[in-house]
Structures are given as C-alpha cells and as structure tokens.
Write a structure and sequence with these properties.
alpha+beta, Heat Shock Protein 90, five-stranded antiparallel beta sheet, 5 strands, EC 2.7.13.3
C-alpha cells in the first residue's frame, strides 16, 4: 500500500496544486483515464471546502490530503481542523435550520452535494476536532509492456 501525504496552507491558490498531485497519483495507481476529471473536481471541491472552513474559523494549521493506493482501489482523504458539532447534524440530513446555524453552510452543503455527485464511494465525518472527506475509486491493474 503506497501513500502520499500532502499538507498545504489553507489558501485558495494551493487547491490547484492538490488537484494536480491527486490526478497524477490516481493515474499512477491505475484509476481509469475517463475518471481522472472526476478525481480532480472532487479533490478540488473537498480542498476548497477545507480551505473555507479554516479561513472562516481562523485556523492556522494546514489542510491535509492523503492519497492511498491499495490493491483494488485508490482513496483520497481530505482533512481539516475546523470544529463544527452542528455541521455533523447537517451532513447527516438534519433540519435546514440546523444547517443555517452552522455558519458558512450554504457553500459547505453545495460542495458536499457536488462531491456526492462525482464520487460513488464517499464518506464525510465531522466533529469538534475537525472533519475528513474520504473518497475512493476502483483501479485496474497496470498492464505489463515488454
């Protein structure tokens, strides 16, 4: 199992770099070429969401992106350190009123909707110490060229 970990300052200009690194590692891991645009878009949304949460909560720690190549799948975890106990209810399908109380939720909810539309296997966890978006895609074995 190969792992690449990327830490970047929570600045919008670094999101593009995270997208490029994710696409390169996904390609190397064997993710289908037709899916690479979805990987780039999903990582961009997840990283933009994390950057926004860090900025709105004035959190100085970096955003974490972990790229994991497993035997039959490629996974990406995007983590932030923004505390949001109320946001967990909103992600889990809580009332719209709870979502409005959670802060910059409109963008947060939209970003999660976009990610869910792009990725079949996605899991979002959030709590008092931060949150993680886990996404994965199937891989195909690399063909051996003589």
């Amino acid at each position: 199992m190969a792992t690449v970990e990327l830490l970047f300052s929570a600045l919008p200009e670094h999101v593009r770099t995270a997208r490029l690194v994710a696409a390169a590692v996904a390609r190397r891991a064997g993710v289908d070429e037709a899916v690479l645009d979805e990987v780039r878009l999903a990582v961009g949304e997840a990283c933009s969401r994390a950057v926004g949460l860090h900025a709105s909560n004035e959190i100085p720690t970096p955003v974490r992106v972990v790229l994991i190549e497993e035997e039959k799948k490629f996974s990406i975890e995007v983590g932030d350190d923004a505390p949001r106990a109320v946001a967990v209810e909103a992600v889990a399908g809580g009332a719209a009123g709870a979502a409005e109380e959670a802060g910059a939720d409109g963008d947060d909810e939209m970003g999660l909707a976009v990610i869910s539309g792009l990725v079949d296997d996605v899991e979002v966890t959030a709590g008092e110490s931060g949150g993680v978006i886990r996404m994965s895609w199937p891989t195909t074995p690399a063909s051996v060229v003589p």
